[in-house]
Amino acid sequence: MDEYDERVVAEPTRWLADEESKPAPEPLLRIQALVNTVELPTGPDRLADPDDARPWLIDNGLMAAEAYLSDADLQLLRDVREALRAVLVRNSGGPAPTEAQCKPLRTVAAGGVARAEVDADGNVGLVAAGDSVPERLVDLLLIMRDAQRHGSWARLKVCGNDECRWAFYDRSRNHGGTWCEMSSCGNKLKNREFRARRKKANR
Ligand SMILES: [Zn+2]
Predict the structure, then answer these.
(1) Distance between Cα 23 and ligand 1 center (Å)
(2) Which positions fall inside the Zinc finger CGNR domain (predicted)?
(3) pLDDT tens profile 127-148
(4) Residues with Cβ within 8 Å of residue 189, at least 6 apart in sequence
(5) What are the CA-CA distances from residue 97 to residues 76, 101, 176, 192 (Å)?
(6) 163, 38 in Cβ contact below 8 A?
(7) Whose CA, among 3, 88, 136, 160, lies 20 to 30 Å from 146?
């Protein structure tokens, strides 16, 4: 276990959000980053393998360093990722998400707890209470809520290319952006080194 931890620390834990061409402002970037952990339809998936996912999840605040990551947690993450993508389709002018598509977000909402915090200036914030993936996912719901109130939520969209669906932040004046990035649409990671470790060749 010690050897495992050392190796994880030495590895790059960032994925793509630090290189997004159309990044959302923090903290909304956290939702964009989760949606963009996979290149659809058949590209690399940062959340397919627990050894790949773990350092990224810790670095992105979706689990504590000492927390256990189960297969069910990974499945929930992937389900939430696609639920978020379905919600973002609506921001992009597409249909509203279905009941089934929203279900993973409701699962997180039903199981999680938010805690109020007061900082040194007296500002009050809400944060997820707990160290596990299901508990920390509540943070993303809180980020969604704030972004929906502030209006930035509507600018977080997914690419209009059905084969791509990459999440991007639309900074255009008329909110009319449709594509993630013309030059590399649908080809985000294919030309990029897949930095997560590919340990299990038999997967
Ligand atoms: Zn695209």
Answers:
(1) 14
(2) 155-198
(3) 999 999 999 999 999 999 999 9
(4) 16, 39, 43, 44
(5) 18, 6, 20, 31
(6) no
(7) 160
